[in-house]
Amino acid sequence: MRVLASVASLVLALVLLVIVLPGVSGVDLPAIGAELADVGPVVLAGLLVLAMAVMWCGNNVITGSLPGMTQSQAFQLAAVGTAVGNVVPLGGVVGTTTAFLMGTSWGHSAVAIGVSVTLTGVWNLVGRLLFPLLVLLLAAGFRFHAGDEVLWYGLATAAVLAAGVVVLTRRRTVSLVTRMLTRLLGDRRGGAFPGVTDLAFTVARQNWQQMTIATCAVSVLHGVLLWACLAAAGTRVELGLAVVLFAVNRMLALVVITPGATGVTEGGTLALLFSWGHGGPEAAAGVLLFTLFTTVLESLVGGVCWSWWTLRRTRTPRRAVVSE
Question: What does the pLDDT average to over 198-225?
Fold first, then answer.
């Protein structure tokens, strides 16, 4: 059943791309393909380096949440998790399972991995919401011509979600949720999650700066990649508008009706570009190029990392990484 759901979601994503890109841009797929073919190999190589830098920067979020994990291991873990999210609809459960499989094979405890998954998820979510919120606030303050509806709906959505994240990351809230889960699982002695809350806050206090800086670096480089992809395809967007465009793109990525919100982000991003007067095959090609260097590339790299880990999978003696 899960395989069928994954296939159906991937088909839906492809259908959305095939329908949305020509529909919004007003040009057919061959014209978009012709614009992509005009992008030179040197430019493509530069975009590839930039895309890999985005992925590599994310390592520091994971190494911060799980001390003792190497950069190579963090890269593999992040790549596989992202690939799962891009292929499997609502692939959080599958991604968490792969994180436990890979992490324990490298000697990390289940508790430490659970803390890492939680902290990484919180920081990634805050990065995807807080950055767009600040950008849209600035855009509204400086009255960028991004469309009042786009700005105010975006502000309202980001504010609600950001407030939810802040509430959920407070110590009292985490302790309350832990107690509720413990009772739900039938263990009223509080032994179902021994030390998880304390360990999570210990790691967060020690490494919050590293994780925050890495999250900001990923956001900035991701935005530069979007701007560069548009420029490579012949669409020159002003810097201020490019920042707003990226913020809206990141918020649309949370609408996961398809794996990785593929089709949704492209359609919304292209519609916003069109409202600013950047229509035609160049804009559609730039948006599609961004998808190729994010969703497609990340999925391919994740598949390679999973295959590599599977081939080299060996059990190593567990090492104490953080006091539990």
Answer: 86
What is the distance between the alpha carbons of residues 269 and 249, in angstroms, rounded to a whole number? 6
pLDDT in tens, 133-160: 777 777 766 666 555 555 565 566 556 6
| Nearest alpha carbon to residue 89 among 197, 21, 6, 172 | 6
Give the SS3 label for residue 67.
coil
3-state secondary structure 271-307: HHHHHCCCCHHHHHHHHHHHHHHHHHHHHHHHHHHHH
pLDDT digits (tens, 9 = 90+) for 105-116: 898 888 888 888
> In degrees rounded to 5, what are phi and psi of residue 20?
-70, -50
What six digits make up the tokens of 23? 């529909």
Domain residues of the chain, as ranges? 30-264+286-311
As a whole number of angstroms, the distance between CA 272 and CA 149 comes to 11
Burial of 273 (0-12, 13-18, 19+ CB in 10 A): buried
CA gap 14, 160 in Å, rounded: 31
**Does residue 83 carry a pLDDT above 60?**
yes
pTM: 0.77
Helix (H, G, I), strand (E, B) or coil at 251: helix
